[in-house]
Amino acid sequence: MSKTETTGQQDHLGEAGAQLSTAPREETVIGGPTLGPFGWVRWFWRQLTSMRVALILLFMLSLGSIPGSLIPQTSADEVKVRAFKEAHETLTPIYEKLQLFDVYSSVWFSAIYILLFVSLIGCIVPRTWQFVGQLRSRPPGAPKRLTRLPAYTTWRTEAEPERVREAALAMLKGRRYRAHTVGDAVAAEKGYLREAGNLVFHIALIVMLVAFAWGVMFKSEGGKLIVEGDGFSNTLTQYDDFKSGSQFGTDELEPFGFTLDSFTGTYEKSGPQRGTPRTFEAAVRYSEVGKPEKKAIIRVNEPLKVGDAKVFLIAHGYAPVVTVKDGRGKVVYHGAVPLLPFDNNVTSTGAIKVMDGYRDKNGKKEQLGFNAFFVPTFAGAGKGQMFSQFPALDFPVMAVTGYHGDLRVNSGLPQNVYQLDTSKMKQFKVQGGTGSANRLLPGETMTLPDGAGSITFEKEIKEWASFSITQQPGNGLALAGAVAAILGLSGSLFIQRRRVWVRAVRGEDGVTVVEMAGLGRSESAKLPEELAELAVTLNTEAPTAPEPSERTAEAAEEPAEGAEK
Predict the structure, then answer these.
(1) CA 442 to chain CA centroid, nearest Å
(2) What count of other Cβ atoms lies within 10 Å of the Cβ of residue 537?
(3) 283 Cβ contact list (under 8 Å, min separation 6)
(4) pLDDT band with cut points at 50, 70 and 90 for residue 382
(5) pLDDT tens across 421-477, in order?
(6) Which residue ranges are recorded for the region named Disordered (predicted)?
(7) Could you tell me which residues come within 8 angstroms of residue 365 by beta carbon, excluding any fewer than 6 positions away?
(8) Is the pLDDT confidence value at 162 over 90?
(9) What is the per-residue pLDDT across 173-214, written as a single tens digit (0 to 9) for each?
């Protein structure tokens, strides 16, 4: 039903057709006076708080979030943003002007967000008061001409009008209609909770917007790489990287710690899914302040929950154990070195840095650095390169390239712990391998030239796991809002608001005339069916009277039968 038809219907039905919706009626003034400043403000407010503009803003918000999903965001990963800028020098200035690297904190996204928030509130508040008024009121009386309603039926009955109205009132109340008698008719209404679902849906949208803003302002997220046997304490200095909202304080970090006991990863060994992880879990021991230590298993999408914090397992790799000795045989470095994977078969690279304790053959203090290239299952022999053909530790090999000099760790500039700065270093030339790098099996040692020492690839290879520790206070509120939005939308879509009137009056011939009619918010195929069902039920209490010709024939037959008897 179009807006014009609906308006016309309400005009000729009067109060009976009004207030079937809490949506404000749009008034158009043609040829009216010019709007003044206050009139323009009022017009703008009405446009902003209309449902049409709210839907447009919601659509714009969803469109605005697309660049945030496709383009690296500074708040999520600065390294990826830097790499994107280096790879796209032409697009970078345009993206920076449009704030596409910080979509969710940009001016234009915030403007859409705030306008949508104001629009929803301005739309919901008046409709809520109007809906409350409708709940407190009773269904309006029947129109003068029920024949104009989209669903209509009538019949004549010998039952008294009062008896018909009483039966109709009891029947409608029994079917959960709000019903009462107004004059010569019974007025009933059902499905008024449709508007409640509509309001719940829009209120839920506001709740979700508030939850999103709350989560952005008070959230915290940090990452930590932990080798088997090492631990973590939830303090700011323990994080490898940390980001938080503008209103988050470091004293709000959940006080707890955990130790990575072991990481277990198993993989499909054959078939088209060869190398696909089957088991991917970390066994940890965690403790809270004043509570005994507990054990837990962290899996993908199964985080460890401690208070308001969640610990997610996001990545893993290998940490070969190496030992570095100087020319006199003194151990200057021993430990597991985490290496970063760059393919699905966990081919990894990293750096080994000996910053203190090393002296060359002349006793001069110097620093050592090694580039390490590790494969858990070696392949590529005789082809001039090495790569991994399976992610498990079936045939581990590590290639090492050594340097000596100044690591530049004291230069005051930030440095990647997984990369070497060789600008102030010289490369060792070693025997075997390629002359600059040697491939080592577990337990093998590479001797550095000129009595500079050695590096040993120990037989022990540890695994590491990378964790994301987050505190997102608005998640529960956002989930509640999403559930409420679904329920409210379902109610507004599937509940049909309709009104039914039953009029019973005595006709000129003394026989009661019963009229039943129904009206809904829009054309509905179910309304005539429902009215027909109600009419059949009421007809059992007020059966159809015979036609006048039939009554005359019956009256004429009665004396003849008496005379015959």
Answers:
(1) 46
(2) 15
(3) 260, 261, 262, 263, 264, 295, 296, 297
(4) low
(5) 888 899 988 766 566 678 899 999 999 888 889 999 999 999 999 999 998 888 888
(6) 1-24, 537-565
(7) 358, 359
(8) yes
(9) 999 998 999 989 999 998 877 788 888 888 888 888 888 888
Return the H-helix or E-strand segment holding 205.
Answer: helix 193-218
Burial of residue 398, with CB atoms counted within 10 A of its CB: 0-12 exposed, 13-18 middle, 19 or more buried: buried
81-127 residue pLDDT tens = 888 888 888 899 999 999 998 888 889 988 998 888 888 888 888 88
For residue 467, give the nearest of 260, 329, 189 by alpha carbon: 260
Give residue-wise pLDDT tens across range 485-516. Answer: 899 888 877 888 889 999 999 988 889 999 99
Residues in Cβ contact with 556 at an 8 Å cutoff, skipping those fewer than 6 apart: none
Q: Residue 261: which residues within 8 A CB-CB, separation 6 or more?
A: 228, 229, 283, 284, 285
Burial 84-113 (b: 16+ CB within 10 A, else e): bbeeeeeebeebeeebbbbbbebeebeebb
Contact 25, 11 (CB under 8 A): no
Half-sphere exposure of 23 (CA within 13 A, CB side): 15
Angle among Cα 202, 205, 207 to the nearest 5 degrees reads: 115
Q: Is the pLDDT of residue 4 over 50?
A: no
Between CA 396 and CA 305 the distance in angstroms is 35
- Those residues with Cβ within 8 angstroms of residue 218's Cβ, 6 or more apart along the chain or in another chain: 245, 247, 248, 252, 471, 473, 474
Listed in sequence order, the residues at least 6 apart from 456 whose beta carbon sits closer than 8 Å to its beta carbon are 322, 323, 324, 325, 443, 444, 445, 446
Record the pTM.
Answer: 0.66
Residue whose token pair is 């990963």: 77
Of the candidates 324, 302, 322, 320, the one whose C-alpha atom is nearest the C-alpha of residue 311 is 302
Dihedral pair phi/psi, residue 63, rounded to 5°:
-65, -40
Q: What is the number of other CB atoms lying within 10 angstroms of the CB of residue 389?
A: 16
DSSP assignment of 379-418, as one string?
Answer: E-TTTT--EES-SSSSB-EEEEEEEEE---TTSSS---TT
Q: Return the pLDDT at 524.
A: 61
Strands 294-299 and 498-506: unpaired
Q: How many residues does the chain have?
A: 565
